[in-house]
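Page 42, continued from yesterday. The earlier attempt failed because a stray header line got pasted into the input along with the sequence. Redoing it now with the clean sequence only.
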Amino acid sequence: MIGQLTGFVGQVEADRCLIDVNGVGYVVSASTRTLSVLPTPPETARVLVETVVREDAIQLFGFATGEEREWFRLLTTVQGVGAKVALAILSVCSPGDLVTILSAGDKAGLTRAQGVGARLAERILTELRSKVAKMPGGGMSAPISAPVGASVETDALLALAGLGFRRAEAWPVLSRVLAEHDGASLDAVIRLALKELAR
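This time it went through. Structure tokens are written below.
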């Protein structure tokens, strides 16, 4: 199995690139997010790879970060989400965005991706919501930041309610998190609260 490629960028297309490793050209499918950070051909690039072996083909999927690859693996565990749809989601959502979208139950955030309708978005939310806390929330985009106040408090409560926590159990934990982490972003507040509630 191929886990990483380091070589010259031969060419970059809309949904894939060619990486030349010692004269062998590997066609690697990737999200627009990953393709946008590749150096200009023919410079050298390092791409993390997920190898998918089927009866009729061996496909390589490339990622600029380990976080993106982890999310690709998780997304493709959902029925109806193949590699193409997972890359489409990762093209419009960074790993940090996905943490926020799934935590908040934001169906519209997922339907922005090509090939994701309302029904599939609902299935993704249902199946992956409980796995968000274990996933990396980093990635290439900056963390979502917002002033701590009523809006963060309300949004965090809504997100936790969407994950099945009652207000009575979520509110004390959320209050403590907000007090201890003054100025934290909504994304961080939700993750810290989930960590506490999971104990």
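Notes: The mean pLDDT is 84.
Reminder to self: strip header lines before submitting.
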